[in-house]
Amino acid sequence: MSDESVLTVRPVRDRRPLSVQVYDRLVEALRETARPGDTIPPEIELAAELGVSRTVLREALRLLEEDGVIERGADPRRRQLAHPGTRPPSFNAPLEEMLRAQNAITVEVVRTERLDVTNWSRALLELGDSTEQLLCRESLFRVDGEPVASALELVPTRDGAVPLALVDRPEAADQTLLASLGAQFRARCVPSLWRMSAGGSAGSRVGLKDVPRDRLTSLTTTLSKSGRPVFLAKYLIRLDAVVLTVGENPDAEDSFDLETP
Question: Where is each HTH gntR-type domain found (predicted)?
């Protein structure tokens, strides 16, 4: 698809928020017709083709950038399908091992259920035309009762992809999905996406609905095994309340911390 090519997308109209519908339509169109580095059409053209306002379109584009589906090109006024990211820091730790706070951090599992694949999860887990369901777990992190982070994690349910039996253990009842899958599973995986963005959208996340967007940082990650993505997570973190420690060993010289001043 050249810089001036038209991206063919279907108009949107169902009961979901318009920005979510636009997100799905764009992911679908980009997945079918674009290659990394291809420039997407200007906002005014996309808005007209989708039948939505530019305000709705900009929200969907912001979410696509946040999730690493698109990125700014050499000309920052234009967006393009994102190139595969460089390899992130070499660790596979669950979020509870990466967060630090002055007081104890507690984890509450909000829900664990099987969900249908969306265009977002299909693209990042490289599921192609598969109709399999995904195992989803949402977890809420608190410090002194205050919500400080949320984890939304997804894994395929196909045979052999992940050790799903470990999720049902009693000791996994208050762990994130990645933690419940165990150290052996994580050791066999390679981080394949690490995308951080300021101003994450809480959406329907339990406990974070009233947190202002400018106090949230979004982190989207995938882990791959044998070259195939097997784990997807989107974390929302309040870096004004906790520190995110990145590195193989939190106390090693090559690790670094992320926090707001």
Answer: 16-84
